[in-house]
Amino acid sequence: MARREPTVYLFMRMHAYINLQVDPEPWPNAPYTAAMTAEHPNLRLIHHPLIAHKLTQARHRDTPTPTFRRLLREISGLMTAEICQDLPVHEVTVPTPLEQAHGHALAVPLTLVPIMRAGMGLTDGILDLVPEARVGLIGLYRDEQTIQPVTYYTNLPGDVGEGTALIIDPMLASGGSANHAISILKEHGCDRIRVVVLVAAPEGLAALREMHPEITVFAAALDRGLDENSYIRPGLGDAGDRLFGTA
């Protein structure tokens, strides 16, 4: 009977073979991120190969609605650890099957505030990781003549000011909607606010920095800028239409 190689050696040989067949482009390192964000101190660019891979798929014009919806949920889930990495915690004690264990729990409530309707496409990915979070809603639409946001709906927890709020929208274009949503949250007593987007434009970051310089924007990509119609280029199209199949 032929001697069988241990599984680990078979895996190592297969891995070596695969490495000989491809020559992948190395992933840019941390200084690349720092260079991109030096001009935008209010931007936290989340730089990860899986996020970049999935965002590229989402950008593709032929990506169907079910796939686009899944990709946005997965990207927001991958972003969540970085977005929440400095949330306040307090010590707790829990019983394990063997003894008491000391650990930590979130110390203040987390409220997700998607800007309707497109922001809802990112909300479930964050809830997958933080199911304890509450969900408020801010409904805005853009006046195509003035390019300014108009509020049509607001529903927030009464104690939203007691914790951290994440404003969620796939795109930060001119910054009008995000600035408007931040102002609404501040009117409700909230002073711990973060903005979560997939794609940001330099113009939107500048607008937020001018009105709300203390607010950090978490983004998966920083795009080139806005066109004459205030759409992000290269962007990913109308995220709301692509999420809900109304394109």
Describe the protein.
This protein is an alpha/beta fold and 247 residues long. It has one domain: Rossmann fold. It contains 8 helices and 13 strands. The chain has helices spanning 7-21, 30-37, 49-59, 65-83, 120-129, 176-187, 202-211, 239-244, and strands spanning 43-45, 89-95, 100-106, 110-116, 134-135, 137-142, 149-155, 164-168, 171-172, 192-200, 216-222, 225-226, 232-233. Strands 1, 4, 5, 6, 7, 8, 9, 10 and 11 form a 9-stranded mixed β-sheet that branches. It has a two-stranded antiparallel ribbon with strand order 2-3. A hairpin with a 4-residue loop joins strand 2 (89-95) and strand 3. Helix 3 runs antiparallel to helix 4 and helix 4 (65-83) packs across helix 5. The termini are far apart.
Summarize the SSE layout with pairings.
Elements: H1 7-21, H2 30-37, E1 43-45, H3 49-59, H4 65-83, E2 89-95, E3 100-106, E4 110-116, H5 120-129, E5 134-135, E6 137-142, E7 149-155, E8 164-168, E9 171-172, H6 176-187, E10 192-200, H7 202-211, E11 216-222, E12 225-226, E13 232-233, H8 239-244
Parallel strand pairs: 1-11, 4-5, 4-6, 4-8, 8-10, 9-10, 10-11
Antiparallel strand pairs: 2-3, 6-7, 12-13
Helix pairs in contact: 3-4, 4-5
Overall CATH class:
Alpha Beta
Radius of gyration: 21 Å
Distance between the termini: 63 Å
Which blocks of ≥5 consecutive residues have pLDDT under 50? Answer: 5-23
Can you tell me the CATH topology?
Rossmann fold
Helix tally equals: 8
CATH architecture: 3-Layer(aba) Sandwich
* Residue share in β-strands: 25-35%
Helix proportion range: 25-40%
Average pLDDT taken over every residue: 86
Give the domain tally.
Answer: 1
Number of strands: 13
Tell me the major beta sheet.
Answer: 9 strands, mixed
The gross shape turns out to be globular
Tell me the series of helices and strands, N- to C-terminal: HHEHHEEEHEEEEEHEHEEEH
The class by helix and strand makeup works out as alpha/beta
